[in-house]
Design brief:
Distance between the termini: 12 Å
CATH architecture of the largest domain: 4-Layer Sandwich
Structural class: alpha/beta
Radius of gyration: 25 Å
Strand content: 15-25%
CATH superfamily of the largest domain: Aminohydrolase, N-terminal nucleophile (Ntn) domain
Largest sheet: 8 strands, antiparallel
Bound molecules: fructose -6-phosphate
CATH class of the largest domain: Alpha Beta
Helix content: 25-40%
Number of helices: 18
Number of domains: 3
Strand order of the largest sheet: 3-2-4-1-10-9-11-15
């Protein structure tokens, strides 16, 4: 999704802005631009395509005498919402008077009404974007006091947005504002930064301030002043980033996606170990108590995409072990469904970024109905983590590839811990089962390692099937939930059409799509339904399907049932299916690699989806 950067200090802003934008490339974008103030004049360079196009534009213009010099500037990577990707729709946008420039992440919902208003005041628009409304509106209210003009303008906007703003006649300051979409401020000696995300500024500073909801910051090279929505100056904690730039680099791998897949043993260890104390699960919760877990009568899980797929697993685990009615809901639907949630509901909110706007709004909806909210989040201090009643962090580290892998697995591990903890609080399981689960979770990293060592087998299968037109993923129970994720992963990165089906459901319609050579990836790791799944595999095989089966290494699937079998380590009572995601992730990765896809930044996708 769109990325914002800003710099103010005594160095040339444009190279810093271009480098910072490159660090945000992983978020997904279609165009980019920068604006710098030089002698009380705002100069802008922007264009469709990659940052390298923007670099060439800046370099070529420079050769022709059109410099972009100055010590204060803003930059942007755009992920189109209003108006197609084009040079003119790219940010920054500048006001008609040339006095104000804005970069924007998010959506202005009432932009049509504001555009009509501004047109009636004589403003002419050059782009199709909602952002141009913001910049003209600020310009309209500007009478010499930048902060007052910004405040008046934002009081008229509805939607969610983060803004970086500069005024030609105030070259010593930047203004940042956040409502919904995230924004951080990086602090350094004699220079300061704004950014949508930490990697953009990590090579310059590890000290950051996270802007909260409706907070506005005035940033100079020497100071940062933050104000709340009432205009009162507030104190903000400075957060020290503990990870370094290496975590945001590929470390010898060809893509971030494969690097992150390979990191999963460590990620699971880091996520599980701190939650085990004296052979018992200790989630370290502060505001949600064991009493709450005993009191609740139902659980709802809200999330999007892969995080929703974790929610589908979590629902099954909570019902199975804690015996509480649970449901997983797609966050973007939940908010508008007048959901049946009350003070006896526990709402579990799952999000890697902690910034997904659909998930955030779903959480607020649940809260407004009296539900306690417990989030499972990867990014420390993010909006969802801060706004929920309590948070369990997945210690997956920064995830750069747009398609999630390690954060997904860490969310799964937390789901097991949480389901077991709730079950224990409610007397549904005893210490013995808890300890069994803990030892299983502690075994998982080594078994993931083994699966990763066998990645050549998956690479070989990918080279066999990468030209498939359409791929089906099937499984029963938890295997179905994993099939959903395997299918999403494949289509995200390889652009092959794919669908996930409950294995027993296929015969009720979709089996009509199976013909000679259709590839079916069948998960058969859920042992109570193993035989039934094998029957479903036979049904597709009989219709000519090519089958890749994934099952446990203490079973076998005959050659006439599956063309290829991936065996995963057995001996688990509860969590074997957590391992089967590894071959699915590897398969998606290698298929995409064979097809020459842009694996880390698949077309049209964004890492952190901050629009509804
Ligand atoms: C898929 C993927 C997305 C996210 C979804 C939610 O690989 O990454 O489906 O899972 O956009 O994002 P978060 O977890 O940040 O809320």
């Amino acid at each position: 999704m769109c990325g914002i950067v800003g710099y103010i200090g005594n160095k040339q802003a444009s190279p810093i802005l271009l480098d910072a934008l490159e660090k945000l490339e992983y978020r997904g974008y279609d165009s980019a631009g920068i604006a710098v103030i030089d002698n009380n004049k705002i100069n802008i360079k922007k264009c469709i395509g990659k940052i390298e196009n923007l670099r060439s534009l800046v370099a070529n213009d420079e050769k022709n005498g059109s410099h972009i010099y100055g010590n204060v500037g803003i930059g942007h990577t755009r992920w189109a919402t209003h108006g197609k990707p084009s040079d003119v729709n790219s940010h920054p946008h500048i006001s008609q008077s040339g006095m104000v420039a804005v970069v924007h992440n998010g959506i202005v919902e009432n932009y049509m009404e504001l555009r009509t208003f501004l047109e009636s005041k004589g403003y002419k628009f050059v782009s199709d974007t909602d952002t141009e409304i913001i910049v003209q509106l600020i310009d309209f209210y500007y009478t010499g006091d930048p902060v007052a003009a910004v405040r008046q303008a934002i009081s008229r906007l509805s939607g969610s947005y983060a803004l970086g703003i500069m005024f030609a006649d105030y070259p010593w300051q930047l203004i940042a504002f956040r409502k919904g979409s995230p924004l951080i401020i990086g602090l350094s000696d004699g220079e300061n930064y704004i950014a949508s995300d930490i990697p953009a500024i990590l090579e310059h500073t590890k000290k950051i301030i996270r802007l909260g909801e409706q907070e506005l910051a005035v940033i100079t090279s020497e100071s940062v002043s933050v104000f709340n929505s009432f205009g009162e100056r507030i104190h903000k904690e400075v957060q020290e980033i503990t990870w370094n730039i290496d975590a945001a680099q590929k470390g010898g791998y060809e893509h971030f996606m494969i690097k992150e897949i390979m990191e999963q043993p460590t990620v699971i260890k880091n996520t599980v170990s701190p939650r085990i104390s004296a052979s018992a699960i200790d989630l370290g919760l502060k505001n949600i108590t064991d009493k709450d877990f005993r009191r609740i009568t139902n659980v709802v899980i809200v999330a999007c995409g892969s995080a929703y797929h974790v929610g589908v697993v979590a629902k099954m685990l909570i019902e199975k072990y804690a015996r509480i009615p649970a449901r997983a809901e797609i966050a973007s639907e939940f908010r508008y469904s007048d959901p049946m949630v009350n003070e006896n509901t526990l709402t579990i909110v799952i999000s890697q970024s902690g910034e997904t706007i659909d998930t955030q709004y779903a959480m607020r909806e649940a809260k407004s109905k009296g539900s306690k909210t417990l989030s499972i989040v990867n990014v420390v201090g993010s909006s969802i983590a801060s706004e929920s009643d309590d948070v369990i962090y997945t210690w997956a580290g920064t995830e750069i590839a747009v398609a999630t892998t390690k954060a997904y697995s860490a969310q799964l591990a937390v789901s097991y811990l949480l389901a077991f903890h709730i079950a224990k609080c409610r007397g549904c399981i005893g210490e013995k089962e808890e300890q069994e689960l803990i030892s299983e979770l502690e075994r998982i990293p080594d078994d993931i390692e083994k699966l990763l060592e066998g990645k050549n087998q998956i690479q070989f299968m990918a080279s066999k099937y990468f030209n498939a037109q359409s791929i089906f993923f099937i499984g029963r129970n938890i295997d179905h939930a994993l099939a959903l994720e395997g299918s999403l992963k494949l289509k995200e990165v390889s652009y092959i059409h794919s669908e996930a089906y409950a294995a027993g459901e296929l015969k009720h319609g979709t089996i009509s799509l199976i013909e000679d050579g259709t590839l079916v990836v069948a998960l058969a790791t859920y042992m109570p339904l193993f035989e039934k799944t094998v029957s479903n595999i036979k049904e597709v095989k009989a219709r000519g399907a090519q089958v890749i089966a994934i099952t446990s290494d203490n079973t076998s699937i005959p050659e006439d049932v599956a063309d290829n079998v991936v065996y995963i380590p057995s001996g688990y009572k509860y969590i074997e299916p957590m391992l089967s995601i590894i071959p699915l992730q590897l398969f998606a990765y290698y298929v995409a690699a064979n097809r020459g896809c842009d694996i880390d930044k698949p077309r049209n996708l964004a890492k952190s989806v901050t629009v509804e």
